Target: Aminotransferase
Amino acid sequence: MTDFHRIKRLPPYVFEQVNRSKAAARAQGADIIDLGMGNPDLPTPKHVIDKLVETIGKPRTDRYSASKGIPGLRRAQAAYYKRRFGVTLNPETQVVATLGSKEGFANMAQAITAPGDVVLVPNPSYPIHAFGFLMAGGVIRSVPAEPTPAFFPALERAVQHSIPKPIAVVVCYPSNPTAYVASLDFYKDLIAFAKKHELIVLSDLAYSEVYFDDNNPPPSVLEVDGAMDVTVEFTSMSKTFSMAGWRMGFAVGNERLITALTRVKSYLDYGAYTPIQVAATTALNGPDDCIREMRDIYRKRRDALVESFGRAGWQIPVPTASMFAWVPIPEKFQHLGSLEFSKLLVEHASVAVAPGIGFGEYGDDHVRIAIVENEQRIRQAARNVRKFFDAAENNLHNVVPLNKAG
Ligand SMILES: Cc1ncc(COP(=O)(O)O)c(C=O)c1O
Model:
């Protein structure tokens, strides 16, 4: 049997290779401190779980639900956008609930992409930003991930030299994996650019509430006047309410784009389990002290990471948002590339990180460190890393796996 067309477009996950190293080390008894996957370790707020439990077990809620989301949930998402961003959304036409933002993003790609369509995607980026379009038969052209003025000349070049002309541009701030944050001014320039070149803007705002400067919350691109003409934005319950396993997210914005996504979804799913949608409505409608607590915990972990790894001799660029630090590989190890370096960290420091290459070719001189273990474990990771660096100082080949060193 020849390779399937679609499967050929999905190379094996790079992260699988680090996972294999992790499993092997664990089998040898190593206590791996896992800062690899961006999987929130905090509990879902109790009042949200209580609502789920209260709603379960009623025959009405066991039936197929609403693919586009129950009306109360869509209203709650519109109210969140009003409160948080000052953006007015019609819950009937400009909001659709998704089975996590990842599903929404992938099916938006299905909805708008014709075979061979070109899409501008940041590199490095969260994998679905590229693979959603590749799966849909599109073609990717990489653009820089950093939201600086230099972004626009690069975008302009990409538009001029793509055949056919690109249909869309993807942005993601606060960014996974780089933790870059965009300003409203950047978004103003982006929307002007998109309108000039007739591009759709797809904005992934999964980390809207995971930020560390209380005076400077990340904006929504929809705050820009006229953005609604060309934009769809994705948000997620996964990080805001530590509900990653619940699979609940949203797409909001331009009516024509939302209608297209809603149509695709109406053929594919019946919506999330109703009690999940009801509990998600409760979460969105507040109270929001649980969000502040989540932020405080990540902020303290971020500080512990920067401080303890810095002392261990590995300078961490300070992230101002997201659950990640995007960290250059120390010079001594740079020639190895991010995958080999990540495997060494597992084997010799019992610390798992995500190799930058997993997010695109321009990520290979970095690793992504996720703050998904507690402060104590983060500090332990730093001590392990220090021992590994010290041993490597003598000879890279002399380093002994921690679990064997005792
Ligand atoms: C940038 C970004 N978008 C989307 C997602 C997926 O979120 P969800 O759980 O809503 O599918 C993640 C998860 O890590 C992410 O980092």
